[in-house]
Amino acid sequence: MIPGSILRLLTDCLTIIVIDLLLAGDNALVIAMAVRVLPQHQRKVAIIFGSAAAVVLRVILTIAAAKLLGIEFLKIVGGALVIWIAVKVLADASEPPPETPRQRQFLQVIWIIVVADITMSLDNILAVAGAAHGSDALIIFGLAVSIPFVVFSSNLLAKLMDRYPVILYIGSAILGKVGAEMILTDPFMVRRWHPSELWVYMAEGAAIVGVLIVGRLLSGKAEHGS
Q1: Integer angstrom CA distances of residue 45 from 40, 53, 107, 159, 200
Q2: Rounded to the nearest 10 degrees, what angle do helices 136-163 and 25-35 cross at?
Q3: What confidence tens digit (pLDDT) does each residue in 172-201 have?
Q4: Rounded CA separation 42/36 (Å)
Q5: 20 to 30 Å CA-CA from 201: which of 13, 105, 117, 186?
Q6: Is the distance from CB of 65 to CB of 84 less than 8 angstroms?
Q7: Which sequence spans correspond to the domains of the chain?
Q8: What is the Cα–Cα distance from 21 to 176, expressed in whole angstroms?
Q9: Least confident residue range of 12-26, 34-48, 190-204
Q10: What is the pTM of this model?
């Protein structure tokens, strides 16, 4: 018979792994969209470096998660960044991945991965902190386990986007929805405006349409300018 303490530890570990896997989809999507502008041989390196840096920051933030989601304007800034990323990757969609590596672009992609992963992981961070019951070791374990899943799914999505460009538009629409939801669920917005569920849905729809239109317009300008 398994002792109660060991059983609880195993249960907590499994809970954290499930949380990470369930909530990592958006992160894998934005990473895949960001690395698409890099040549094939740089994509995996950028995903690994970006994801590893993001996980280190997430460990630090998760340990202090009790106050994290109560900070006003944090989710507004994060949501705006996610929407900006959605527009940027869609605007870059007309440009094929370059054959010649560009160091500045490589570092920019890693920066996008880190920022997007942190801003889109606020709810994930709080959920993992709760499941870990204050154990820093469990927090580190759970977040580290999520790295292989994110790396694999990001690589797969990036390859699918090369073959089926329509996935870029679907991904941008999803990121627009996520960004609008983050903005409207910020503590300041909730306290000041008390947005109803209908307003949240309307804002998400407006963000999706806006991202697709602006991204497509910018993509068209890039095509005409080249």
Answers
A1: 10, 12, 11, 15, 37
A2: 50
A3: 898 888 889 889 988 899 999 999 999 999
A4: 10
A5: 117
A6: no
A7: 4-225
A8: 21
A9: 12-26
A10: 0.75
Helices (H), 133-196: 136-163, 166-184, 187-193
Length of the chain in residues, anyone? Answer: 226
- Inter-residue contact 142 to 17 (CB < 8 Å): yes
The C-alpha atoms of residue 85 and residue 112 are separated, in whole angstroms, by 8
Say if residue 1 is exposed, middle or buried (CB neighbours under 10 Å; 0-12, 13-18, 19+).
exposed
Q: Which DSSP letter does residue 93 get?
A: G
Query: Can you tell me the distance from the alpha carbon of 101 to that of 105, in angstroms, rounded to the nearest whole number?
Result: 8
DSSP string, 188-202: HHHHHH---HHHHHH
| Alpha-carbon gap, residue 188 to 131, rounded angstroms | 26
Written as one string, the DSSP assignment of 14-72 is HHHHHHHHHH-HHHHHHHHHHHTTS-HHHHHHHHHHHHHHHHHHHHHHHHTGGGGGGST
